[in-house]
Amino acid sequence: MSSKRTGIAWIISLVAVLGSLYFSEIAGFVPCQLCWYQRILMYPLAIILGVGLFLDEEKIHWYVLPFSVIGIFVSTYHFLHQKTDLFSKVGSCTQGVPCSGEYINWLGFITIPFLALMAFVGITVLMISRMKSSK
Q1: Which residues contact residue 94 at a Cβ distance below 8 angstroms, ignoring those fewer than 6 apart?
Q2: How many C-beta atoms surround the C-beta of residue 25 within 10 A?
Q3: I need a surface site. Which of 35, 37, 83, 132 has the fewest CB within 10 A?
Q4: What SS3 class is residue 110?
Q5: Integer Cα distance of 130 and 47 in angstroms
């Protein structure tokens, strides 16, 4: 069952990586600074989870959770920056593409940072669940 959770987390990370590459390389959306930070946290997860699944690494959660938990914070900050005025005075994305921009806005709340947040949350929940089941 533990490797099943790792496999699902790996698929989530692959979808997130391929989705971000689609948005930038095919759709032509230029990533903002916070989007790059989220990519920096997500891309290694696809590799770590893939290798961990292949090697059936028992303690994979210790390698994954730092990336996914930090990713939750970055994605939440970015999403709130887009959708609220909470962080309007905090200077982020001062050069290039503004972090408040929304290339997609499905159903009025689903933006690219929201999609990243859901991926990071899913991976985190699966890794915490895996960690608790291995005790």
Answers
A1: none
A2: 9
A3: 132
A4: strand
A5: 18
C-alpha closest to that of 41 among 98, 133, 113: 113
31 in helix, strand or coil? coil
| Closest by Cα among 53, 47, 67, 46 to 120 | 67
pLDDT category of residue 95 using cuts at 50, 70 and 90:
confident
CB atoms within 10 A of CB 90: 9
Alpha carbons 41 and 44: distance in angstroms, whole number: 6
Helix (H, G, I), strand (E, B) or coil at 106: strand
Q: In this structure, what DSSP letter does residue 7 have?
A: H
Take residue 10 and report the two structure tokens written for it: 């790996």
